[in-house]
Design a protein that fits this description.
The protein is of the alpha+beta class and about 90 residues long. It is built from two helices and three strands; from the N terminus they run αββαβ. The protein has one domain.
Length: about 90
């Protein structure tokens, strides 16, 4: 198993990922994909869309083995939810 090293601080990684999503990726994927996961390489802006986190990451890594991946769930503030939420 290859171990990838982080190239950015957590803050820089998050900033780059969020910026790429808002400016380049979101306009391409938002319509009709609510709740799906987007895996974005913060260096190349290459991305993958999937229903689950691992398939998105694996497909992106198959093309870009050294990807620095930022995940977004379309239409949500976070990728995962804790607790039951409001009912």
């Amino acid at each position: 198993m290859q171990v990838r090293q982080a190239r950015y601080s957590k803050e820089e990684h998050a900033r780059r990922g969020a910026e790429l999503y808002e400016k380049q990726v979101r306009p391409q994927v938002e319509a009709g994909n609510h709740g799906k996961i987007v895996a974005i390489d913060v260096d190349s802006a290459d991305f993958e869309l999937a229903d689950e986190l691992l398939p998105a990451a694996n497909r992106l890594l198959s093309r870009r083995p050294d990807a620095q991946i930022w995940f977004v769930r379309i239409g949500h503030r976070g990728v995962h939810r804790f607790g039951l939420g409001s009912t």
